[in-house]
Amino acid sequence: MRLLGIETSCDETSVALVEDGRHILANVVASQVDVHARFGGVVPEIASRQHVESIGAILAAALSDAGVGFEAVDAVATTAGPGLQGALLVGLTAAKSVAFARGLPLVGVHHIHGHVAANFLTGASILFPALCLVVSGGHSDLILMQSEVELTVIGHTRDDAAGEALDKGARVLGLGYPGGPVIDRLARQGNPDAVPFPRTFLPGYDFSFSGIKTALLRQVQAGTALPVADLAASYQRAIVDMLAGQTMTAAREVGARQLLLAGGVAANTELRARMEAECAAAGLPFLVPPRNLCTDNAAMIAAAGYYLLRAGRKDDLSLNAVANLPLAAA
Ligand code: KG4
Ligand code: ZN
Predict the structure, then answer these.
(1) Residue 153: how many CB atoms within 10 A of its CB?
(2) Residues 55, 193: one domain?
C-alpha cells in the first residue's frame, strides 16, 4: 500500500511517498530555515505563506522523484497537529484535496507519532513494549509503545523542550538559529567538563531544562573568559546527561525490550552515541533513524499513517488541524 505523506507543521514543507510504512519511494523536504534565520526563530505567518507557495511544487516533485502519478497513491496521511495552526492548515488542505479528488482514504497523524514512526523506516522490527525518547524543538517526551499505534506518554518536559533549550542556549552564545546543529558541531572542539552545569532529575520521568538555561545565561552575563566551544560542550553534555539518565531509568522500570530515539535532537552526535553506549551496557536493543529522518519530514508521517490505517483508523474531510493536539487523540 502506497501512502502519500504531507507535513507542514512548522518550517519544513515536505511530501513523501512510502510503501507499506517502511520503504521510502520519495521524500522531498523544503526547509524555510534561511527565511526565518534573520528573525532568530520561526515566524508563524511567514511559515504559512511559504507553505502555500511551495506545497504544489513539492507535491509534484515527490511524485516525480518516485516516477509515478497520482494513480499510484492508495491513501493520504497528513499531520493534523500539534504545530502552527496556519502552517498545519496548508498541508491538511492539500491532503484533503488529493483524497477528495482521487477518492482515497485520509488519515490525520499526530506529529510526535510521526517522529516515533521514523524508526519504522529503518526496516528493523520493533520489540514491544518499546520505549521511545522523542526530543524535538517543541517536545521532550518519553513514550511507551505497546505496538506501532498504541503510544502512551509516561514523561514529558515541565518547561522547555530539549531542542528549545539548545536553540535558546545558542542564541545566548550568539551562535544564530537553529542552534542545535551549531552546538552539535562546536561542542566537538570544546571541553564538556569546563562548566559543571546543574542537572535536574525530577521524580518520575519528567524533564526540566529551565535551570540549565538560566545557568548558561548567568555565566555569559558574568563575562566568562571560557572559549565558546567549552560552554557549548558543557551545556550539551548536561542536556545529554539529563535525557539519557531519565530514559535509562524509565526503560529499566517499565521493562522496555527496546529503546528508540526520535525527533530533531535525535540528530545530535553526542546524544546518539550516548544512548547507543548506555543501551549496549544495559543489553537493550537500540534503534535511531538516520539523521535526515530525525528532523521534520513527510515520510515519517506516511509511516505512522500506514499503521493507523491498518489498525482501522480513517478520517473524513471534516478533519481539522489542532495546534495543541494531545497524543492520545491521534
Ligand atoms: O523535530 P524537529 O525537526 O522539529 C520539531 O518538531 O520541533 O526538531 C527541531 C529541533 C531544533 O530545536 C533543532 O535545533 C534541533 O531539533 N536539532 C538538533 C540537531 N539537529 C536539529 N539539536 C541538536 N543536534 C543536532 N544535530
Ligand atoms: Zn518535529
Answers:
(1) 16
(2) no
In this prediction, residue 196 carries a pLDDT of 96
The enclosing domain of 76 has a CATH number of 3.30.420.40
Give the whole-angstrom CA distance, residue 73 versus residue 90: 20
Cβ(32) – ligand 1 distance below 6 Å: no
Task: Check pocket membership of 296 for ligand 1, CB cut-off 6 A.
Answer: yes
DSSP summary character for residue 323: T
Q: Where are the beta strands (DSSP E) in the chain?
A: 2-7, 12-19, 23-31, 75-81, 106-110, 130-135, 140-145, 151-156, 258-262, 286-287
Q: At 324, list the grid cell.
A: 495543541
Distance CA 121, CA 58 (A): 21
Round to whole Å and give the CA distance between 45 and 87. Answer: 8
Q: Given this model, what pLDDT does residue 330 score? A: 52
> With a 6 A CB cut-off, is 180 part of the ligand 1 pocket?
yes
Range of the domain at 303: 2-117+293-310
Residues 79 and 202 in one domain: no
- The string of pLDDT tens digits covering residues 61-90 is 999 999 999 999 999 999 999 999 999 999
Are 263 and 132 members of one domain? yes
Coil/strand/helix, residue 159: coil
* In a domain? residue 122: no
Judged against a pLDDT cut of 80, whether residue 44 lies above it is answered with yes
**pLDDT for the residue numbered 177:** 85
Distance 155 CA to ligand 2 centre (A): 18
